[in-house]
Amino acid sequence: MRSVNPIYHHSTQMLSEEQEWIALAQENPKNFAPLYEKYHEQIFRYVNQRMNDQQLAFDVTSQVFLKAIKNLKKFEFRGVPLGSWLYRIAKSELNQAFRDRKATRAINIDKMQVATFMDVFEEETNDLNKKRLFKALSKLNEIDLQLIELRYFESRPYKEMGDILSLTENNAKVKTFRALEKLKKSFNKNSYL
Amino acid sequence: MKRKVIYNREKLSSDEIRKHREFDTLLKSIEDDSNVYWKSIRFWGTVGASAVALFLIINMF
A64-68, long-range: CB within 8 Å, 24+ apart, which pairs? Predict the structure, then answer.
């Protein structure tokens, strides 16, 4: 069963508590502390998953919170957790790091995730297929790669993916399905590696 | 953009990530940033007014 991010999925009570924290932080940046503590780890993991350099990932994470605090007055509460706004800032900061600091775009994948793809593709998990998958992943365009990462590497539900990528839940679902089809097609093209 | 596939990278524990939480440093850099004079409205107001004044003086003579 797909795991659910407990920090992202808020009850009404948690959302209203967060709304109070945001209002206090908008008055004084010092009051941002509980929000920083709540989201620091998940934003770092999101950034680190896409970077090759751990120290740079910590730097980018700090930049995300710096920007968030500076722009918090512009933030409007729309019934979704602050996390989705922070992820959007993280996405933009990551792009800036790839562009300005010439950072390498990492695609982190583990044994279990390789096995999941092999199940989906109805292929055997072996070294050759692993290489075919890696090649197919590295050839995906950035948007498709993000969809695959959010869904298959980070196990996020479509609602959360939509909030992060500014898509509707249904659109996120359709686009992820298409991205998976493209990945499969590219994987099959690599059969003579 | 360079891309690299990394297989089975060791995952950082929550404790290790927590060690890098530096909220006070973050706040300090925001305060330092807001104290930079050349970024202030006052600085750019002065620069703007001086430029306009200089333009008028040059045109007068």
Answer: A64/A89, A64/A90, A64/A93, A65/A32, A65/A36, A65/A40, A65/B26, A66/B26, A66/B29, A66/B30, A67/A93, A68/A32
- Mark A164-175 as b/e (b = at least 16 C-beta within 10 Å): bbebeeeebbeb
CA pair distance A116, A122, nearest whole angstrom = 10
∠A123-A127-A128 over CA atoms, to 5°? 65
pLDDT over 80 (residue A71): yes
Whether A106 sits inside 8 A of B18 (CB atoms) is: no
A188 HSE (CA, 13 A, CB side) = 9
Is the ipTM higher than 0.90? The answer is no
Identify from A39, A47, A62 which residue to disrupt to test chain B contact, counting B C-beta atoms within 10 A and taking the largest count. Answer: A62
| CB-based contact, A21 to chain B, within 8 Å | no
Which pTM value belongs to this model? 0.84
Distance CA A86, CA A6 (A): 16
Q: Which of B1, B4, B8, B7 has its CA nearest to residue A142?
A: B1
Q: Is the dihedral of CA A159, A160, A166, A171 positive or negative?
A: negative
Distances (CA, A) of A151 to A4, A61, A113, A173, B47: 11, 21, 11, 9, 51
Q: What is the pLDDT of residues B3-16, one digit of tens each?
A: 999 999 999 999 99
Instruction: Please report residues of A whose CB lies closer than 8 A to that of B35.
Output: none
